Amino acid sequence: MAVYTASDYIIGFALLLIIYKLLKDHLFTKIQLDEYFLISIIPPIIFALCIRLLADANVYAKNELWSVTPGVYVLGTVYGTVLIGTGYYIQKTRNIEYWKTVIVIGAVTIPYFFIKLVLAMQNPINFFYPVGLAGVLTSAVYLILKNFGPTRFITKKENLLIIFAHMLDASGTFIGIDKFGFSEEHPIPEFLIGLAGTAAVMIPLKLLIVIPALYLIEKWQSESPGSDLDSKMLKIIIFILGFGPGMRNSLLQTLWDVQS
């Protein structure tokens, strides 16, 4: 049975809006949302993933304030903001690019949690099944849509990366539930999976949501020159909301003695 309630989503959405506003008005007036920023958000994503998975493995208690949704998203965002803010300060004072500082600090602070996670794994090979399926699905989407006028935006690297992130989420859910007997934690996907009789339904459903969303963002960006920052932030949020759960679903399958 799903473990998340309507109040969890309301709290999470409210926190997301607050964080969005704070970052937009302060940090993102100084930091460009480019490939270096994408590099700089890798450490906080890994950090939050490790905490969430260690809670799944019962190494840490499941606490909505910090180790599971919505708290783990806030924890990861705070950690990332501190890293990027520190990097920006050093860039201004020492002339060292901020993202390099982020990587160095991440390389110092994350290994402790990552090693604990690796030690908790029982079947590391299971991680590669959803990753491989996500790669195949993303390639198929690219080949089908790249030459179709309204969906040529799929050829942009950041859009293809978002598609992969959500295919990873769908693939991890599908394999985890159908092959290994895991359960869905969110009520709407749980209902739809029960209705379809298979978690494979998450693959087309994800595409039906993400592709139109990207199309609307691209259209908004082209028609409203002042929307560039907001559209980039939306893409980053959509990517994280797919990649974070996708990696968690994929890595979750390595933590127990479930064989292929």
Could you outline the blueprint of secondary structure elements for this entry?
Blueprint: H1 6-25, H2 35-40, H3 42-56, H4 71-94, H5 98-109, H6 111-120, H7 128-145, H8 157-178, H9 187-196, H10 202-223, H11 228-252
Structure description:
The chain is mainly alpha-helical and 260 residues long. Helix content is 71%, strand content 0%. It has helices at 6-25, 35-40, 42-56, 71-94, 98-109, 111-120, 128-145, 157-178, 187-196, 202-223, 228-252. The chain is globular and about 55 Å long.
Short description:
The protein is mainly α. The protein has helices at residues 6-25, 35-40, 42-56, 71-94, 98-109, 111-120, 128-145, 157-178, 187-196, 202-223, 228-252.
User: Main β-sheet, in a few words?
Assistant: none
What are the segments in which pLDDT stays under 50 over at least 5 consecutive residues? none
Helix amount: over 70%
Which strand-content bin applies to the residues? under 5%
What structural class results from the helix and strand content?
mainly alpha
| Number of H/I helices | 11
| Rounded radius of gyration (Å) | 19 Å
User: What is the domain tally?
Assistant: 2
Q: How many E-type strands? A: 0
Amino- and carboxy-terminal Cα gap: 24 Å
Mean pLDDT figure = 90
**What is the 3D form?**
globular
Secondary-structure element pattern, one letter each: HHHHHHHHHHH
Output the keywords.
0% strand, globular, 260 residues, 2 domains, mainly alpha, single chain
